[in-house]
TrEMBL record:
Record's function text: Catalyzes the conversion of 4-hydroxy-tetrahydrodipicolinate (HTPA) to tetrahydrodipicolinate.
Subunit and partners: Homotetramer.
Name of protein: 4-hydroxy-tetrahydrodipicolinate reductase
Active site residues according to the UniProt entry: H136, K140
Taxonomic placement: Bacteria, Bacillati, Actinomycetota, Actinomycetes, Kitasatosporales
Binding site for (S)-2,3,4,5-tetrahydrodipicolinate: H137, G146, T147
Domain Dihydrodipicolinate reductase C-terminal: 112-248
InterPro entries cross-referenced by the UniProt entry: DapB_C, DapB_N, DapB_N_CS, DHDPR_bac, NAD(P)-bd_dom_sf
Pathway info: Amino-acid biosynthesis; L-lysine biosynthesis via DAP pathway; (S)-tetrahydrodipicolinate from L-aspartate: step 4/4
EC numbers, comma separated: 1.17.1.8
Sites where the protein binds NAD(+): G11, A12, K13, G14, R15, I16, G79, T80, T81, A106, P107, N108, F109
């Protein structure tokens, strides 16, 4: 039997899934053993002997797919969004029953986005105000993006740890949504615009100065090195790993 990693893609016909299929086919140390689309049987994964499934579908489909993978001891690299505390708890429970299986959930596979989150986390305690603006293609089904939600959570945690005061905001009258979504006290704004792919700005403001951290994914190829890294690392990392930064040496 070949020593290549046996990899499947679930959501193989989607925007990122089809790019992932090409990247896995081109990787010397991987073999694409299944490409699953909507309506295809998950049993194909087990029949094909997949060691790792790359899950790139929709928030509505991801839990059912992961339930199957974990029950069959198939490691998973997950880019699909829609993660809540309840979902993470459910997934952890499944993993407890399959202790050798690893699942990586990466809100964003691109190195620039991972660094944006890290930089925002570092900067957040030093400014009075911080807001997140994410900008995506109009076919995206969820808002705010998984990346923006994670960024805001990391910012909120960093500010709480540093003992920062709540952000200044004198708004008393506003149209619904005008101040964005409130993610743990951090406003998050979602733009949907034809022509865009995936972009994010973290705006920080202090007395007499602002700092803007901006990242642009201009092509789905930006996510591929992160997906391949995730596949290589998840097979030796049992349990739940949340965030690609855990597989990068960011200091
Ligand atoms: N973590 C990251 O770096 C990235 C994450 N994403 C996320 O990945 C997900 C997919 O994004 P896109 O490719 O843009 O969406 P898409 O709509 O182009 O693709 C999703 C695909 O999954 C298929 N699908 C749905 N349910 C399925 C099921 N039960 N079994 C098999 N296939 C199923 C759909 O038919 C579709 O082909 C989204 O949640 C998006 O936010 C997207 C880009 C980067
Ligand atoms: O739907 C997308 O396109 C993307 N989804 C992910 C998210 O919601 O953060 C990652 C990236 O922003 C592209």
């Amino acid at each position: 039997m070949s020593s290549k990693l046996r990899v499947a893609v679930i959501g193989a016909k989607g925007r990122i899934g089809s790019e992932a299929v090409r990247a896995i086919e081109a990787a010397d140390d991987m073999e694409l053993v299944a490409a699953i689309g909507r309506g295809d049987k998950l049993e194909t994964l087990a029949e094909a002997g997949a060691q790792v499934a790359v899950e790139l579908t929709t928030p509505a489909s991801v839990m059912g797919n992961l339930d199957f993978c974990v029950r069959h001891g198939i490691h998973a690299v997950v880019g699909t969004t829609g993660w809540t505390e309840d979902r993470l708890t459910q997934l952890t429970t499944w993993l407890d029953d399959s202790p050798d299986t690893g699942v990586l959930i990466a809100p964003n596979f691109s190195i620039g986005a991972v660094l944006t989150m890290k930089f925002a986390q570092i900067a957040a305690p030093y400014f009075e105000s911080v807001e997140v603006v994410e900008l995506h293609h109009p076919n995206k089904v969820d808002a705010p993006s998984g990346t923006a939600t994670r960024t805001a959570q990391l910012i909120a945690a960093a500010r709480a740890e540093a003992g920062c005061a709540p952000q200044p905001d004198a708004t008393t009258t506003a149209l619904d949504g005008a101040r964005g979504a409130d993610v743990q006290g951090v406003p998050v704004h979602a733009v949907r615009l034809r022509g865009l792919l995936a972009h994010q700005e973290v705006l920080l403001g202090g007395e007499g100065e602002t700092l803007t951290i901006r990242h642009d994914s201009l092509h789905h190829s930006s996510f591929m090195p992160g997906i391949l890294l995730g596949v290589r690392r998840v097979v030796t990392t049992p349990g739940l790993t949340f965030g690609l930064e855990n597989f990068l040496d960011l200091g």
